[in-house]
Structure formats: C-alpha cells, structure tokens
Amino acid sequence: MKRSMNILLTCIICLALAGSVTAIAGETIVIKGSTTVLPIAQAVSEAYMKINPGVNISISGGGSGNGIKALIDKSTDIANSSRFIKDKEVQMAVEKGSYPVPHRVAIDAIVPIVHPSNNVGNLTVEQLSLIYQGKITNWKEVGGPDLQIVVVSRDTSSGTYEVWEEKILHKAKVTPKAQLQASNGAVVQAVSNNKYAIGYIGFGYLNDSVKPLKIAGVVASVETALSGEFAVARPLFMFTNGWPTGAVSSFMAFLLSREGQEIVKKEGFIPLF
Questions:
Q1: How far apart are the two ends of the chain, measured CA to CA in Å?
Q2: The domain at 2-107+235-266 falls in which architecture?
Q3: 179/151 Cα distance (integer angstroms)
Q4: What is the mean pLDDT of residues 66-81?
Q5: 157-202 pLDDT per residue, tens
Q6: Which of 182, 187, 184 is nearest to 198 (CA)?
Q7: Which CATH superfamily is domain 108-227 in?
Q8: Which of 38, 134, 182, 196 is the most buried (most CB within 10 A)?
Q9: With 0-12 CB in 10 A as exposed, 13-18 as middle and 19+ as buried, what is 95?
C-alpha cells in the first residue's frame, strides 16, 4: 500500500505541474465499483441531485476491482473502492494515460455475521481464519451447536474480500466449499436464510436479520473502528481520474462536507469527522 501511495503521489504531482486535468463533459457523473461504498454513493447522489437538478448521476456496483478497472478504461468518472489501489493497477492506469487520485470518504468495519438463532457471539481472529480455511467445520468446535458450518464469502473481485483475506486469513486460501457472493446484500440474505452459515459484511449493512459477532471480545462500533481496536476496520475510497473538476469536483466537495458526512453516518457507516 505504501508503494502504491508513493506512485500515486508522483503521478498527482506531475499532473499538477503539467496542468493536464481534463474537465468532465456535460453534467453527467458515472460512478462504478464497490458494493460496500454503494449505499453511500446512492444516498449522497440523491441529496446532491436535489440541490443540483441539472446533474444526472448513474451508479452501479460490481466490486472494487471492477470500479478501478472502469476508471483506468475511462468508462467511469468515479470508482468506488473498499480497498486502496494496487501497484499493478496504478502502473496499468499510467500506461493508459489515467491518473487515479484517492479520496477517503468514510471508515468501515467488516463484521462477521451468523444466523440469529446461533448462540455463538464471539470468535478470535484465529478461529475465524480456521473456519474460512475449512479447518474448523462444526460450530461445536467453537462453543456453538452441533451443526456443520456453511462458509459464505465474497468473490475475489471484492475489496471487502481482499481486506478479509489480509486481516483474517493472512493470505491463506478460502475453503473451496465456500459459497461466494457478489455483494454485501447477497451475504446478508444467504446468512439470514441459513442457520448453519457464517459470513462477513460492511458495517453499514448490519440489520436485524443477522447476528453480528465480536472479534476477540471487541464489538464493532464507531469507536472501536476509529481507534483500531476492532480487528477489521478500513477506510473507504472514491477514486477520480486526476484532480476532479466540474460536476465531479462539486459532488466530491459535497460528499466531504459536514452535510455529506452526515449522510454517511445516516447510512450506517463511520464519518470522517
């Protein structure tokens, strides 16, 4: 991540010196990428368009990797991402004449979830890792009912998956028996309908249909995510191609204003201030 940041800073400085940022055409903004960031983008866009009726915003999901790819291919103005951009993505972007600029828009916690009927309330990082590797296969091994564990995971194009892989699996492979889902919402649905299941979702997707688990005795909350006490907390990003201008610049300024951050909070995520 540090190397990615250094490469980005070099590109951004070059852009600033060259004055080569291109203004967006018209008053349409296209946003693609992370399903975790999607609710923020949708809610902020709705509020923004009410006060800027001449601007039309098109939003779609597809995962962080697909959002960044779309930015590199110049088929989106903003790429939502629940992870930082990778070195290889920065290099690919520069080769294609794109200069991704990161904008941190919120803080998130990735929360393990189970069916509400499950009596397990706390797991360690090691237990979660062994469950997701398929080395712990029955809930009774972690103090739960005598039921086989159904592992629900995000697919590999997901930034949420990549953060989970880094912080919980420590780069180990997910069991091939895992049910892969394309979005946070799909994980919620899968776990809420299966008393055997375990999954993980962004903080803003928690609802009464699933039960959040503590990690090593720590509850996911605004305070524990900001302090770093909760094991799986991360910033959420929007990337633009160069310094944003026109409607994109106005949209980003609104999102990062106090009003925009209040919307972030209302959507269940953790605001920057």
A1: 24
A2: 3-Layer(aba) Sandwich (3.40)
A3: 6
A4: 97
A5: 899 999 999 999 998 999 999 999 999 999 999 999 999 999 999 9
A6: 187
A7: Periplasmic binding protein-like II (3.40.190.10)
A8: 38
A9: exposed
Q: What is the pLDDT of residue 42?
A: 98
What is the spatial distance between Cα 122 and Cα 247, in angstroms, rounded to a whole number?
Answer: 45
pLDDT of residue 20: 34
pLDDT at 4: 57
Say which residue the tokens 């237990």 belong to.
127
What are 153's two structure tokens? 């995971």
C-alpha to C-alpha distance for 57 and 25, rounded to whole angstroms: 13
pLDDT single digits (tens) 82-120:
999 999 999 999 999 999 999 999 999 999 999 999 999
State residue 156's pLDDT score. 87
Compute how many other C-beta atoms are within 10 angstroms of the C-beta atom of residue 135: 12
**β-strand 179-181 against 150-154: which pairing, if any?**
parallel
Residue ranges, comma separated, of all CATH 3.40.190.10 domains in the chain are 2-107+235-266, 108-227
* Partners of 109 in the β-ladder: 233
